Amino acid sequence: MSEHNPGEEPVVVEDDGDAQARMQELEERIKAQGGVEPEIPDDSTRGGFGSPATVLAEAKKHVGYRETGENDTKFTRWLGKIVGYPSDGFGYPWCHAFVSYCLWHSDNADTGPRTASCPAGASWFKQRSRFSSTPQAGDLVYYGKDGGTHVELVTAVSAGTIQTIGGNTSGSLGGNFFNGDGVYEKTVDRASSRIHGFGHPEYSSGGAAAGAGGDVAGRTATPGKAAAGAARPAGKPMTTVRTIKQQQEAVNGLGFTPALDADGEWGPKTEAGIRWLQKKVGAGVDGEWGNGTETKFLAFKG
Predict the structure, then answer these.
(1) CB 276 within 8 A of CB 256
(2) Long-range contacts, stretch 84-91, CB < 8 angstroms, 24+ apart
(3) Model pTM greater than 0.90?
(4) Reduced to 3 states, what is the DSSP secondary structure of residue 165?
(5) Residue 155 in 3-state DSSP?
(6) pLDDT tens, position by position, for the chain (302 residues)?
Protein backbone atom coordinates (compact mmCIF):
# COMPACT_ATOMS: atom_id res chain seq x y z
CA MET A 1 0.00 0.00 0.00
CA SER A 2 1.18 3.53 -0.71
CA GLU A 3 -0.30 6.85 0.39
CA HIS A 4 -2.67 8.33 -2.17
CA ASN A 5 -1.45 11.40 -4.02
CA PRO A 6 -4.51 13.52 -4.90
CA GLY A 7 -3.04 14.14 -8.34
CA GLU A 8 -2.48 10.44 -8.96
CA GLU A 9 -4.97 8.60 -11.15
CA PRO A 10 -5.76 4.99 -10.18
CA VAL A 11 -4.13 2.48 -12.48
CA VAL A 12 -6.76 0.94 -14.77
CA VAL A 13 -4.78 -2.16 -15.58
CA GLU A 14 -1.12 -2.98 -16.06
CA ASP A 15 -1.23 -4.07 -19.67
CA ASP A 16 2.46 -4.79 -19.94
CA GLY A 17 4.54 -7.85 -20.78
CA ASP A 18 4.61 -9.06 -17.18
CA ALA A 19 0.81 -8.88 -16.85
CA GLN A 20 0.32 -10.74 -20.11
CA ALA A 21 2.81 -13.40 -19.01
CA ARG A 22 0.99 -13.88 -15.68
CA MET A 23 -2.32 -14.41 -17.45
CA GLN A 24 -0.75 -16.76 -19.98
CA GLU A 25 0.74 -18.81 -17.15
CA LEU A 26 -2.68 -18.95 -15.48
CA GLU A 27 -4.30 -20.14 -18.71
CA GLU A 28 -1.67 -22.88 -19.19
CA ARG A 29 -2.06 -24.15 -15.61
CA ILE A 30 -5.84 -24.30 -15.94
CA LYS A 31 -5.53 -26.32 -19.14
CA ALA A 32 -2.90 -28.62 -17.59
CA GLN A 33 -5.24 -29.62 -14.75
CA GLY A 34 -8.29 -29.89 -17.00
CA GLY A 35 -10.22 -26.87 -15.73
CA VAL A 36 -11.13 -25.46 -12.33
CA GLU A 37 -13.74 -27.08 -10.12
CA PRO A 38 -14.84 -25.99 -6.63
CA GLU A 39 -13.99 -28.37 -3.80
CA ILE A 40 -17.50 -27.89 -2.37
CA PRO A 41 -20.24 -27.23 -4.96
CA ASP A 42 -22.17 -24.03 -4.28
CA ASP A 43 -25.77 -25.25 -4.43
CA SER A 44 -27.07 -21.93 -3.12
CA THR A 45 -26.48 -20.16 -6.44
CA ARG A 46 -28.65 -20.43 -9.50
CA GLY A 47 -29.47 -18.56 -12.69
CA GLY A 48 -32.50 -17.36 -14.53
CA PHE A 49 -33.91 -14.78 -12.10
CA GLY A 50 -31.28 -12.05 -12.09
CA SER A 51 -30.61 -8.88 -14.05
CA PRO A 52 -27.90 -6.25 -14.50
CA ALA A 53 -29.24 -4.58 -11.35
CA THR A 54 -28.74 -7.68 -9.20
CA VAL A 55 -25.15 -8.26 -10.36
CA LEU A 56 -24.23 -4.60 -9.81
CA ALA A 57 -25.70 -4.74 -6.30
CA GLU A 58 -23.63 -7.85 -5.59
CA ALA A 59 -20.42 -6.25 -6.90
CA LYS A 60 -20.92 -3.09 -4.83
CA LYS A 61 -21.09 -5.20 -1.66
CA HIS A 62 -17.43 -6.12 -2.13
CA VAL A 63 -15.90 -2.69 -2.85
CA GLY A 64 -12.94 -2.27 -0.50
CA TYR A 65 -12.39 -6.03 -0.06
CA ARG A 66 -8.67 -6.84 -0.09
CA GLU A 67 -6.79 -10.07 -0.63
CA THR A 68 -4.74 -11.74 2.08
CA GLY A 69 -1.25 -13.02 1.49
CA GLU A 70 -0.57 -13.44 -2.21
CA ASN A 71 -3.88 -13.31 -4.17
CA ASP A 72 -5.74 -15.40 -1.57
CA THR A 73 -9.43 -14.37 -1.67
CA LYS A 74 -12.93 -15.68 -1.04
CA PHE A 75 -13.46 -15.46 -4.81
CA THR A 76 -10.65 -17.88 -5.67
CA ARG A 77 -11.69 -20.21 -2.85
CA TRP A 78 -15.20 -20.26 -4.31
CA LEU A 79 -13.92 -20.94 -7.83
CA GLY A 80 -11.41 -23.68 -6.94
CA LYS A 81 -7.72 -24.56 -6.77
CA ILE A 82 -5.18 -24.17 -9.54
CA VAL A 83 -2.13 -26.35 -9.02
CA GLY A 84 1.19 -24.54 -8.66
CA TYR A 85 -0.07 -21.35 -7.02
CA PRO A 86 0.56 -20.28 -3.40
CA SER A 87 -2.02 -20.37 -0.61
CA ASP A 88 -2.66 -24.07 -1.30
CA GLY A 89 -3.54 -23.35 -4.94
CA PHE A 90 -5.88 -20.41 -4.29
CA GLY A 91 -3.36 -17.58 -4.73
CA TYR A 92 -3.76 -16.89 -8.43
CA PRO A 93 -4.79 -13.75 -10.40
CA TRP A 94 -8.44 -13.26 -9.47
CA CYS A 95 -10.01 -10.51 -11.59
CA HIS A 96 -12.20 -12.99 -13.50
CA ALA A 97 -12.90 -15.08 -10.43
CA PHE A 98 -14.42 -11.90 -8.95
CA VAL A 99 -16.78 -11.11 -11.85
CA SER A 100 -17.80 -14.78 -12.14
CA TYR A 101 -18.54 -14.86 -8.41
CA CYS A 102 -20.73 -11.75 -8.75
CA LEU A 103 -22.73 -13.29 -11.59
CA TRP A 104 -23.24 -16.57 -9.72
CA HIS A 105 -24.25 -14.86 -6.48
CA SER A 106 -26.83 -12.56 -8.05
CA ASP A 107 -29.13 -15.18 -9.65
CA ASN A 108 -27.21 -14.83 -12.94
CA ALA A 109 -25.38 -18.18 -12.97
CA ASP A 110 -24.45 -19.32 -16.50
CA THR A 111 -25.15 -15.89 -18.05
CA GLY A 112 -21.38 -15.56 -18.39
CA PRO A 113 -18.31 -17.76 -18.04
CA ARG A 114 -17.28 -19.26 -14.70
CA THR A 115 -13.50 -19.06 -15.03
CA ALA A 116 -10.29 -17.49 -13.72
CA SER A 117 -8.97 -16.93 -17.23
CA CYS A 118 -9.51 -13.65 -19.08
CA PRO A 119 -8.63 -15.18 -22.49
CA ALA A 120 -11.18 -17.95 -21.87
CA GLY A 121 -13.76 -15.43 -20.66
CA ALA A 122 -13.47 -13.18 -23.70
CA SER A 123 -13.55 -16.23 -25.99
CA TRP A 124 -16.73 -17.49 -24.26
CA PHE A 125 -18.61 -14.34 -25.23
CA LYS A 126 -17.16 -14.21 -28.75
CA GLN A 127 -18.17 -17.80 -29.48
CA ARG A 128 -21.75 -16.89 -28.55
CA SER A 129 -21.74 -13.66 -30.62
CA ARG A 130 -22.19 -11.65 -27.41
CA PHE A 131 -19.10 -9.43 -27.70
CA SER A 132 -18.87 -5.92 -29.15
CA SER A 133 -17.30 -2.49 -28.74
CA THR A 134 -20.42 -0.88 -27.26
CA PRO A 135 -20.96 -1.10 -23.47
CA GLN A 136 -23.91 -0.94 -21.15
CA ALA A 137 -24.29 -1.48 -17.41
CA GLY A 138 -23.88 -5.14 -16.48
CA ASP A 139 -21.34 -5.89 -19.23
CA LEU A 140 -17.86 -7.25 -18.66
CA VAL A 141 -15.06 -5.06 -20.05
CA TYR A 142 -11.97 -6.97 -21.21
CA TYR A 143 -8.57 -5.30 -21.44
CA GLY A 144 -5.32 -6.02 -23.24
CA LYS A 145 -4.43 -8.06 -26.31
CA ASP A 146 -7.43 -10.22 -27.29
CA GLY A 147 -9.02 -9.32 -23.94
CA GLY A 148 -6.50 -11.52 -22.19
CA THR A 149 -5.05 -9.26 -19.49
CA HIS A 150 -7.81 -8.05 -17.17
CA VAL A 151 -11.61 -7.83 -16.75
CA GLU A 152 -14.00 -5.61 -14.79
CA LEU A 153 -17.75 -5.15 -14.45
CA VAL A 154 -19.31 -2.09 -16.11
CA THR A 155 -21.57 -0.25 -13.64
CA ALA A 156 -22.46 2.87 -15.66
CA VAL A 157 -21.89 4.32 -19.14
CA SER A 158 -21.63 7.91 -20.38
CA ALA A 159 -20.67 9.39 -23.74
CA GLY A 160 -16.96 9.43 -22.96
CA THR A 161 -16.42 7.12 -20.00
CA ILE A 162 -17.46 3.93 -18.28
CA GLN A 163 -17.57 3.30 -14.56
CA THR A 164 -16.39 -0.09 -13.38
CA ILE A 165 -15.90 -2.32 -10.37
CA GLY A 166 -12.99 -4.72 -10.62
CA GLY A 167 -11.12 -7.23 -8.51
CA ASN A 168 -7.35 -7.76 -8.29
CA THR A 169 -6.96 -4.15 -9.41
CA SER A 170 -5.81 -0.76 -8.14
CA GLY A 171 -7.81 2.09 -6.69
CA SER A 172 -8.20 4.62 -3.91
CA LEU A 173 -10.31 4.15 -0.80
CA GLY A 174 -10.54 6.24 2.34
CA GLY A 175 -7.78 8.58 1.16
CA ASN A 176 -5.28 5.79 0.51
CA PHE A 177 -4.17 4.27 -2.78
CA PHE A 178 -3.95 0.49 -3.05
CA ASN A 179 -2.01 -1.21 -5.82
CA GLY A 180 -3.66 -4.25 -7.35
CA ASP A 181 -4.79 -5.96 -4.16
CA GLY A 182 -8.53 -5.50 -3.92
CA VAL A 183 -11.98 -4.60 -5.27
CA TYR A 184 -12.30 -0.97 -6.33
CA GLU A 185 -14.48 1.38 -8.38
CA LYS A 186 -13.03 3.62 -11.09
CA THR A 187 -13.83 5.69 -14.15
CA VAL A 188 -12.28 4.64 -17.46
CA ASP A 189 -12.01 6.57 -20.71
CA ARG A 190 -14.02 4.71 -23.36
CA ALA A 191 -11.34 5.63 -25.92
CA SER A 192 -8.63 3.88 -23.89
CA SER A 193 -6.44 1.72 -26.11
CA ARG A 194 -6.34 -0.82 -23.27
CA ILE A 195 -10.01 -1.72 -23.76
CA HIS A 196 -10.39 -4.73 -26.07
CA GLY A 197 -14.20 -4.93 -25.94
CA PHE A 198 -17.26 -5.87 -23.95
CA GLY A 199 -18.87 -9.22 -23.15
CA HIS A 200 -22.65 -9.08 -22.81
CA PRO A 201 -24.12 -11.57 -20.30
CA GLU A 202 -27.48 -13.02 -21.37
CA TYR A 203 -29.54 -11.71 -18.48
CA SER A 204 -33.05 -13.10 -18.18
CA SER A 205 -34.51 -9.72 -17.22
CA GLY A 206 -33.53 -6.09 -17.35
CA GLY A 207 -30.94 -6.54 -20.08
CA ALA A 208 -30.90 -5.42 -23.69
CA ALA A 209 -33.48 -7.08 -25.94
CA ALA A 210 -32.81 -8.42 -29.40
CA GLY A 211 -33.31 -5.74 -32.01
CA ALA A 212 -33.61 -5.65 -35.77
CA GLY A 213 -30.88 -7.48 -37.57
CA GLY A 214 -30.13 -9.75 -34.60
CA ASP A 215 -27.98 -7.27 -32.66
CA VAL A 216 -28.71 -6.41 -29.06
CA ALA A 217 -30.92 -3.33 -29.10
CA GLY A 218 -29.12 -0.08 -28.43
CA ARG A 219 -25.73 -1.33 -29.58
CA THR A 220 -23.91 -0.34 -32.73
CA ALA A 221 -21.25 -2.77 -33.85
CA THR A 222 -17.90 -1.36 -34.86
CA PRO A 223 -16.59 -2.64 -38.21
CA GLY A 224 -14.23 -5.53 -37.65
CA LYS A 225 -15.64 -6.35 -34.22
CA ALA A 226 -18.30 -8.88 -33.33
CA ALA A 227 -21.79 -7.62 -32.62
CA ALA A 228 -23.76 -8.84 -29.65
CA GLY A 229 -26.19 -11.52 -30.72
CA ALA A 230 -29.84 -12.03 -30.10
CA ALA A 231 -31.01 -13.80 -26.97
CA ARG A 232 -32.22 -17.36 -27.12
CA PRO A 233 -35.90 -17.76 -27.91
CA ALA A 234 -38.17 -17.79 -24.89
CA GLY A 235 -40.26 -20.79 -25.90
CA LYS A 236 -39.13 -24.34 -26.66
CA PRO A 237 -40.99 -27.50 -27.56
CA MET A 238 -41.09 -30.42 -25.18
CA THR A 239 -38.37 -33.00 -25.66
CA THR A 240 -38.93 -36.61 -26.65
CA VAL A 241 -37.77 -37.61 -23.15
CA ARG A 242 -40.15 -35.64 -20.91
CA THR A 243 -42.95 -33.17 -21.42
CA ILE A 244 -42.38 -29.66 -20.08
CA LYS A 245 -44.75 -30.36 -17.19
CA GLN A 246 -42.84 -33.54 -16.31
CA GLN A 247 -39.60 -31.55 -16.37
CA GLN A 248 -41.10 -28.94 -14.04
CA GLU A 249 -42.31 -31.62 -11.66
CA ALA A 250 -38.88 -33.26 -11.64
CA VAL A 251 -37.18 -29.95 -10.82
CA ASN A 252 -39.60 -29.30 -7.96
CA GLY A 253 -39.08 -32.84 -6.71
CA LEU A 254 -35.37 -32.13 -6.14
CA GLY A 255 -36.16 -29.07 -4.02
CA PHE A 256 -35.80 -26.11 -6.38
CA THR A 257 -37.01 -22.87 -4.74
CA PRO A 258 -39.14 -21.03 -5.41
CA ALA A 259 -40.98 -23.99 -6.88
CA LEU A 260 -41.96 -23.84 -10.54
CA ASP A 261 -45.58 -23.68 -11.65
CA ALA A 262 -46.11 -27.12 -13.19
CA ASP A 263 -48.23 -25.65 -15.96
CA GLY A 264 -46.54 -27.22 -18.97
CA GLU A 265 -45.46 -23.84 -20.33
CA TRP A 266 -41.84 -23.03 -21.14
CA GLY A 267 -40.27 -19.80 -19.90
CA PRO A 268 -37.07 -18.42 -18.32
CA LYS A 269 -37.98 -19.73 -14.85
CA THR A 270 -38.44 -23.26 -16.17
CA GLU A 271 -35.15 -23.06 -18.07
CA ALA A 272 -33.42 -21.85 -14.91
CA GLY A 273 -34.89 -24.79 -13.03
CA ILE A 274 -33.63 -27.25 -15.65
CA ARG A 275 -30.15 -25.72 -15.47
CA TRP A 276 -30.23 -25.97 -11.67
CA LEU A 277 -31.27 -29.62 -11.88
CA GLN A 278 -28.58 -30.39 -14.44
CA LYS A 279 -25.92 -28.87 -12.22
CA LYS A 280 -27.25 -30.76 -9.18
CA VAL A 281 -27.25 -34.18 -10.88
CA GLY A 282 -23.95 -33.66 -12.74
CA ALA A 283 -25.35 -33.35 -16.26
CA GLY A 284 -24.20 -30.90 -18.91
CA VAL A 285 -25.76 -27.51 -18.13
CA ASP A 286 -27.54 -26.32 -21.29
CA GLY A 287 -31.15 -25.88 -20.14
CA GLU A 288 -32.47 -28.65 -22.39
CA TRP A 289 -33.66 -32.02 -21.07
CA GLY A 290 -32.14 -34.63 -23.33
CA ASN A 291 -31.07 -38.25 -22.87
CA GLY A 292 -27.94 -37.27 -20.95
CA THR A 293 -29.92 -35.29 -18.40
CA GLU A 294 -32.46 -38.11 -18.07
CA THR A 295 -29.71 -40.65 -17.37
CA LYS A 296 -28.03 -38.47 -14.76
CA PHE A 297 -31.37 -37.60 -13.14
CA LEU A 298 -32.44 -41.25 -12.78
CA ALA A 299 -29.03 -42.21 -11.38
CA PHE A 300 -29.17 -39.33 -8.90
CA LYS A 301 -32.61 -40.39 -7.65
CA GLY A 302 -31.33 -43.96 -7.33
Answers:
(1) yes
(2) 84/29, 85/29
(3) no
(4) strand
(5) strand
(6) 333 333 344 444 445 667 778 888 888 998 898 888 887 767 666 666 788 999 999 999 999 999 998 899 999 999 999 999 999 999 999 999 999 999 999 989 889 999 999 999 999 999 999 999 999 999 999 999 899 999 999 999 999 999 999 999 876 566 555 567 899 999 999 999 899 999 999 887 655 433 322 334 334 333 333 333 333 333 444 566 788 889 999 999 999 988 988 888 777 788 888 889 989 999 888 888 888 899 999 999 88
